Amino acid sequence: MNFTAQDIAEFLQGEVDGDGSVAVNNVSRIEEGKPGTLSFLANPKYEHHIYTTNSSIVLVNKDFKAAKEVKATLIRVEDAYQALAQLLEMYEQSKPQKVGIEEPSFVSKSATIGDKIYVGAFAYIGSNVKIGDNVKIYPHTYIGDNVIIGDNTILNSGVKVYENCKIGKDCIVHSGSVIGADGFGFAPSSANDYKKVPQVGNVILEDHVEIGANTCVDRATMGSTIIRKGVKLDNLIQVAHNVEIGENTVIASQTGIAGSSKVGEHCMFGGQVGIAGHLSIADEVKIAAQSGIGRNIKKKGEVLQGSPAFEFGPYQKSYVLFKNLPKMREQIMDLEKQVKKLEEEK
Q1: Is 266 assigned a catalytic role?
Q2: Which Pfam families match (predicted)?
Q3: Contact, 116 vs 98, CB < 8 A?
Q4: First-last CA distance in the chain
Q5: What is d(CA 35, CA 130) in angstroms, rounded to the nearest whole number?
Q6: What is the pTM of this model?
Q7: CB contact at 8 A, 46 and 29
Q8: Mean pLDDT of all residues in 154-165
């Protein structure tokens, strides 16, 4: 299906700069642009591509000022990246939607199923499960007893949701993720081994949560592990028992959060961040990749880096010194030689 620049601008409440009748039927990266496709420019470091791209239409921010001629028709919007997200969402919704229960699959007679749902082949839905409207459960997905799933949620192929867990509305859980496996609870015994502590709690994913592929969110020992509204977790993340992650926090791949730690709202964690157990992280905290957190972070909006992590600015200054340690060592040894020589000459 073709869309003109004018059509797209009206949908996005943007302004056409160029030929409003030019049409596109696909999207492409600005550096790989092809005729008949739409691209976007949000990061200034990619600006040089806008002067050479063959894309027919490019989304740009309203304040973009071209340094030279641009061949493509521009659509000026408040936020080009957000506008692209709107277009891609519209595109996804325009695709044919799967509906119905495929065979072979198992749906317990005691399960409550909403309208317009899709259950893929080899899926398993346990006893007393409650599933809302427009839910999509792709093949080889397991849903344990007493699970609740809200409207418009998508569980991709191979997702496992253990018993008693709750998933809200408009959530997405990607392939291979496990929601509600036992927390890592073992008590040392007199026999010098470890006795398993039963994990009798659950996991709660609130509305608009997205869980990346092969991410694990463990059930609580007692009570709930809670992922609050709007949280986005990347692939390959471990969230331990009784952790709570605040609203609209985003966490990148390979991060691990140990048991009973509480993460605030609107936080941003880079990849491979490690959070020790029983800690509190304030709202709007930013933690750089590969940082280790072993203490409470009480200051709202603090930016941290390093392992153990400390304030971003001092870390950067310290890192400059760290990189120069070999050179400084040579300088100190040279000074020692000069001092020794001067002492010998006395």
Answers
A1: no
A2: GMPPB_C (PF25087), Hexapep (PF00132), LpxD (PF04613)
A3: no
A4: 91
A5: 48
A6: 0.84
A7: no
A8: 98
